[in-house]
Amino acid sequence: MQSPGIPTNEAERVRVLQELLILDTDPEERYDAITAYCRSRFAVKIALISLVDSDRLWFKSRCGLDASETPRDISFCAHAILGDDILEIPDASNDNRFSDNPMVLGDPNIRFYAGAPLKLSSGHTIGTLCLIDPKPKRLAGEEKRHLKTLAHTVVLEIEGSRAVSEPG
Q: Sign (positive/negative) of CA torsion 95, 98, 103, 105?
């Protein structure tokens, strides 16, 4: 298993994430509607809005998964925040970075993973909108465009919440 790298702006990225005051908050219908739609639209078992904290992944919204967080060092999303485009793993059991990952070898038996980075207007990537399935698959071009649009919608919701909560 290959541990994810650390972004060059990690300290600042985590500070920005924590300043959003979204970590460990209650579920919200606006985010849950997006993950429920993703699960149906992309025909996957699991859809998540994951936020990459300093040592864990915390799920602001989860559809198809009971866990509320996972360790960062075994997470797929911690790899996905290192790039600007969707990280797609068609079959994790055949990918050297993930083939011996505990989440591939055991529950939730990840084969397919696609994570679209949640990049704030400040340029900080705080997490992903991701799709997971126990069966291998690939996204078509149109599906990738939809996933990117939905990830951008999540960012707009997060940034819009912050603007409303900050005194102006």
A: positive
Range of 68's domain?
7-160
pLDDT for 3 equals 80
How many structural domains is the chain composed of?
1
Residue 98 is assigned to a structural domain of this protein: yes
Residue 55 has pLDDT above 90, yes or no: yes
Domain-embedded: residue 2: no
- For CA atoms 40, 60, 154, 118, give the dihedral sign: negative
Distance, CA of 143 to chain centre: 16
User: What CA–CA distance (Å, rounded) separates 16 from 7?
Assistant: 13
Does 165 map to a domain?
A: no
Q: What single-letter amino acid sits at 154?
A: V
**How does the average pLDDT of the chain come out, rounded?**
94
| Of 107, 93, 153, 105, nearest in space to 129 by CA | 153
